[in-house]
Amino acid sequence: MNANGRTILVESNRLFREGLKHLLAGTRFEVGAEFNTMEQAIAHGGQEGPGQDAEPALVITGQAIKAAADLQQLRDTYPSARIVVLADDMSVDMLRDAMGGGADGFLIKNVSPEALIQSLQLIMLGEKVFPTNLAAMLLDINAPSPQNSIRGLSPREQEILQSLVTGASNKMIAIRLGITEATVKVHLKTLLRKIDVNNRTQAAIWAMNNGFSAEGSGTPTRNLQAVSA
After folding, report:
1. CA distance 194 to 63
2. Burial profile 194-209: b = 16 or more Cβ within 10 angstroms, e = fewer
3. Do 105 and 131 meet the contact criterion of CB atoms below 8 Å apart?
4. Distances (CA, A) of 69 to 2, 6, 57, 145
5. Which of 144, 168, 176, 219 is deepest in the core (most CB within 10 A)?
6. Residue 167 banded pLDDT, cuts 50, 70, 90
7. Where does residue 22 rank: exposed (0-12), middle (13-18), buried (19+ CB within 10 A)?
8. CA distance 25 to 63
9. Per residue, what are the HEC states of 26-73?
10. For the whole prediction, is pTM greater than 0.70?
11. Using an 8 Å Cβ cutoff, are 41 and 74 in contact?
12. Burial, 25: exposed, middle or buried (Cβ in 10 Å; 0-12, 13-18, 19+)?
């Protein structure tokens, strides 16, 4: 394993694997070892000797999960690592198995690069990152579709949510919308509750995953933009 890369990548699609390695190169998530299958990653972990250097900080798997037990075996092999599942599509069954197997994050492969990096940063801080709507369905809540979720936000809340994608502060949002910072804080608290996230960074990721861009007037768009620093 590359001493500078403490991420293990499990992905059978070589083209996708190479692209993800290139995306993560030079970041704290740089890939140090890669495998075609989860079985190979588990076997590799079993061959590692004792010591902290043998333990990766992050395991990213794009392999389809057939059962929670498969992921649990990966978790048992790398107990201290954060484990992230990259899925081809939004499947309730796969999310259930991912959560049951001890995954720290569940992301869709077509997530924007910016949202992926921010999600990995949150996961490494100890956060759990899962699609809000799918998680709600697992709790037998009648989760709305993304479009219905967006309609559940007021026009002002959508404007503030879109501003979060650009990384704007409360003061900047207040100036942009012609309202007070206190009003921004009230709207922000309400929209965080509506989309079921804990902070503005998670809200920005939710917005990007639901089609909001750094441009426009609060209407979702398919062209996802980067989050400003």
Report:
1. 32
2. ebebeebbbbbbbbbb
3. no
4. 29, 24, 21, 30
5. 168
6. confident
7. exposed
8. 21
9. CCCCCEEEEECCHHHHHHHHHHCCCCHHHCCCEEEECCCCCCHHHHHH
10. no
11. yes
12. exposed
Contact status, residue 140 vs residue 127, Cβ threshold 8 Å: no
Q: Which of 27-31, 197-201, 223-227 has the highest mean pLDDT?
A: 27-31
Q: Determine the 3-state secondary structure of 136 from DSSP.
A: helix
* Cβ contacts of 181 within 8 Å, gap of 6 or more: 170, 171, 174
Which structure tokens are listed for 156? 């002002």
Residue 221: pLDDT over 70: no
For residue range 171-198, list pLDDT tens digits in order. 989 888 888 888 898 889 888 888 888 8
